[in-house]
Amino acid sequence: MNYISTRNKNILKSPSQAIIQGISEDGGLFVPEEMPILKESIDQLIGKGYKDLAFTIMKYFFTDFKEEELRNCIDLAYNNKFDSEEIVPIVQRDGAFFLELFHGPTLAFKDMALSILPHLINTALKKLSIDKKILILTATSGDTGKAALEGFSDVDNIKIMVFYPQDGVSQIQKLQMLTHQGDNTSVVGINGNFDDAQNGVKNLFNDNNLKKELSDNNILLSSANSINIGRLVPQIVYYFYGYLNLLENKEIKSGEKINVVVPTGNFGNILAAYYAKSMGLPINKLICASNENNVLTDFFNTGTYDIQRDFKMTSSPSMDILISSNLERLIFEISDREDGLTKELVNDLQVRKKYKISPEMGEKLRDFYGDFAHENQVEKSIAQLFKTSAYLIDTHTSVAYSVYKDYKESTGDKSKTLIASTASPFKFGASVGKALGIKDIKDDFEMLEVLARMSNSDIPENIKDLKGKRIIHKNICQKHEMKSMVEKFIGSGV
Ligand SMILES: *Cc1c(COP(=O)(O)O)cnc(C)c1O
Q1: How many beta carbons lie within 10 A of that of residue 315, not counting itself?
Q2: Model confidence over 250-288: pLDDT tens digits?
Q3: Pocket test residue of 169, 319, 403 for ligand 1, highest count of atoms within 8 A of CB
Q4: How many Cβ atoms from other residues are within 10 Å of residue 354's Cβ?
Q5: Which residue of 44, 182, 304, 405 is 20 to 30 Å from 8, comparing CA positions?
Q6: Which residues in 267-287 are b (16+ Cβ under 10 Å) and which e?
Q7: Is 106 in the pocket of ligand 1 (CB under 6 A)?
Q8: Taking phi first (over 0 means left), then psi (-120 to 50 degrees means alpha), and beta for anything else, what does residue 182 get?
Q9: Residue range 349-407, pLDDT digits in tens
Q10: Protein residue with least CA distance to atom 14, ligand 1
């Protein structure tokens, strides 16, 4: 199976090529030439462990990988770097099922894909006999950065550079990135928000001068953002895993449809759920939960995607995004895979800052439900769930949980529901503690200790360690200086 660009179906790449390239040369995103349909019945998948299931799903997408190559990538990714043997535990609270995606090394769901992406890229390089170095450019709203650094650190022939919004990430997120060791890494704060960082990185990908300079140095550019299909596909797996868990535990009957609620920013995670549904997973509604940056809520309710509004800084910083890149892949699907139309709409967004889809396209969005949570709801839900169920959730997960409660009340839909729990509450401890009314705390680390005591759990080692670690990355730049930062990093000959 090949991959095509959302903006030009004549651009055709093998899976390995698409993974290495990250983004199509015309600026479009790679999508499968044809969406794979699961040949096995869902019931046949019962009993598979996470890794085996991952192989079953991913083989549909990475068709040029040999079985042992793909299994090897999976083994290297989902090992004891995860603090839970199940990889993704599922916890039932308050009538919903929380799919805990944060048991990897950086305590957010980004680990689910970024622990395997480096191995996919390395295998793809070998398969295509590409004898070049790779430079991974990444924009982060806080969690991708550290997860990518962790995944790509000290991998031969790969350098990684991360751009984050200097004032737009939590203290823990920032410390995780700035203290990161690894000779092949660079972390740069930009004076701007996540959209600026992401636009800047996209522009670098389209900069032919830069590409020439890099190629003169025997370097290829690639991406660790969810625009890379190698990041999206591994995220399909856990929706199957969650469904099968409910099936095995007799919470649902064979074929019964469930709802999925996803706290959304760049639209990668929920798109993976949509892909799972397209492959045949029985999903009823895909509930897209936003924070106060509620562009997607308006889009699902009106058909207009309009970014002319204030960018808000919220307690769920990894979702502080106005331009959700992966929506382009959904637009492509609901336009019946019209590359010309997709290109036109994306262009409207660039030029007019908005676009409107046709009523026919809107019809195809019926599987989705969009809503958002206000900051005070996010806090209230954290406190309520802790009080009623002794279960601590982070701010991002609370956005999803808040939207879920409203959805259930306003629709009366009683379908069993999986809520994507995207980060450990300890990763956003300051906001979680505030929601619980904890006051007079000297710093974030003390807050973590209080939270651990209250919830009768341990502070995850990877966060505890941060205290007292040396800051290694001190670079800051303006939006227009990103290119020269890349050139400096390359020139440093690391
Ligand atoms: C990245 C992130 C999200 C948003 O996921 P998208 O795939 O960008 O929609 C939600 N929660 C957390 C904790 C994240 O790190």
Answers
A1: 24
A2: 999 999 999 999 999 999 999 999 999 999 999 999 999
A3: 319
A4: 15
A5: 304
A6: bbbbbbbbbbbbbebbbbbbb
A7: no
A8: left
A9: 999 999 999 999 999 999 999 999 999 999 999 999 999 999 999 999 999 999 999 99
A10: 318
